[in-house]
Amino acid sequence: MIKPDGVQRGYMGEIISRFEKKGMVCKGLKTFMTPREVAEEHYKDLSSKPFFGDLCDYICSGPVVCMVWEGPGVVKSARLMIGATNPLESAPGTIRGDLAVEVGRNVIHGSDSVESAEREIALWFGGDDELLDYEMCIKPWVREE
Ligand code: RTP
């Protein structure tokens, strides 16, 4: 998910492009104004943290871009592309390492496991009608499978 700072700074295209270039396939994408209860549910594991309220306020403060990307090892690969939570500790070349400087404005969220991804897709997307089931024309000279 591209967070409000990523949208406001005009990084939608840049971020989507990185996932496309990596070879991931987009199965869902929408702009979205986050209801407070969705933000609180999404970050419920952080509810005891002192920054929880500000984090939820922030996520709800402007449009986000929700995305579902598919591909081999996509969760692990996306986390590597996104970089460390704190942009000052994110390697150059990662999204946060290149585009952000503050932990509370780190431009993107990525699911940390397949189980989290399934939970988050169910939370952020309104059902299967918002997701596409299709195959790219990926031939054997592009993918091994
Ligand atoms: P995300 O869920 O957004 O992909 O981030 P993450 O897994 O890398 O990090 P997580 O620990 O789940 O934290 C979620 C978001 O909370 C904000 N945060 N602020 N002020 C702070 O010390 C602090 N720590 C975390 C960040 O925006 C982080 O992405």
Automatic annotation (TrEMBL):
One of its GO terms (biological process) is CTP biosynthetic process. Residues 1-132 form the Nucleoside diphosphate kinase-like domain. SUPFAM superfamilies: Nucleoside diphosphate kinase, NDK. It catalyses: a ribonucleoside 5'-diphosphate + ATP = a ribonucleoside 5'-triphosphate + ADP; a 2'-deoxyribonucleoside 5'-diphosphate + ATP = a 2'-deoxyribonucleoside 5'-triphosphate + ADP. It holds the Pfam family NDK. Its cofactor is Mg(2+). Belongs to the NDK family. PANTHER family: NUCLEOSIDE DIPHOSPHATE KINASE. This is Nucleoside diphosphate kinase. It comes from Micromonas commoda (strain RCC299 / NOUM17 / CCMP2709) (Picoplanktonic green alga).
